[in-house]
Design a protein that fits this description.
- The chain is an alpha+beta fold.
- It has a single domain, classed as HIT family, subunit A.
- The chain is about 25% helix and about 20% strand.
- The chain has an 8-stranded antiparallel β-sheet with strand order 1-2-3-5-4-7-8-6, with helices on both faces.
């Protein structure tokens, strides 16, 4: 099983082509060499989707740029447009798991920093939830966050701030979004909120709680979607 913890060093401007992030193994390994949950389940020209280690619910996917990037802020304008279309396509598929689909990013700005969850490669989470993630994030009353609400965020990219390390949360079906710029970096902030709402406070740590059964259910559904 791919362990997405740690990566090689690179500059803060982006991950260089020669310094490979851990997720690159998902692209580079032959199909026969991957564990079932380390497989691409959908793809576009510039992005791939695969199940998330630490899936607290079934249907949790990650969308990753094919080229090394530190965060989604670094996407070009054409890539942002492609990401939007691809994310909407994937979100429609995982809607079968019930609830509302949310997209979120932990926007890392520092190589090896805690916000990047030990991966140092840009990725977008897509997760179906039975509760309001936007409200849950607001109600956490975290003084470390400088919040901005988005009442008409037509795209996920419109929730990405120009500066700082951040979390961005977006609900596609009604274009509601929330951006939190961190005063101090924190690890896996949105995952902690989800874990608390699910009554599984320790499950935010994907390395300690991989939730393989949920992963396998996601793979099964995506391969038949």
């Amino acid at each position: 099983m791919l362990d997405p913890s740690g990566c090689c060093s690179a500059s803060n401007a982006g991950v260089t082509e020669k310094k490979v992030h851990r997720f690159q193994a998902i692209l580079d390994r032959p199909d026969g060499g991957r564990a079932p949950w380390d497989r691409v389940v959908d793809q576009s020209s510039s992005f791939v989707a695969f199940p998330s280690l630490g899936s607290m619910v079934a249907g949790w996917l990650l969308i990753m740029p094919r080229r090394p990037l530190l965060n989604l802020r670094q996407l070009s304008a054409p890539e942002r447009a492609e990401l939007q279309g691809f994310a909407m396509k994937v979100a429609a598929k995982i809607a079968v798991f019930g609830g509302d689909v949310y997209a979120f990013e932990h926007g890392n700005e520092t190589m090896g920093g805690p916000v990047g969850c030990g991966v140092d490669q840009a990725h977008l989470h897509l997760v179906p939830l039975e509760f309001d993630l936007l409200q849950a994030a607001r109600l956490r009353n975290d003084c470390n966050m400088q919040w901005t609400d988005h009442d008409n965020a037509a795209t996920f990219a419109s929730t990405i701030p120009a500066l700082g390390e951040y979390v961005s949360i977006w609900r596609p079906h009604d274009q509601q979004g929330l951006t939190g710029v961190m005063r101090e970096p924190r690890s896996q902030w949105v995952r902690r909120v989800i874990a608390e709402k699910l009554g599984r406070e320790q499950a935010w740590d994907y390395k300690a709680h991989p939730d393989v059964p949920n992963l396998m259910q996601t793979v099964k559904v995506m391969h038949t979607a």
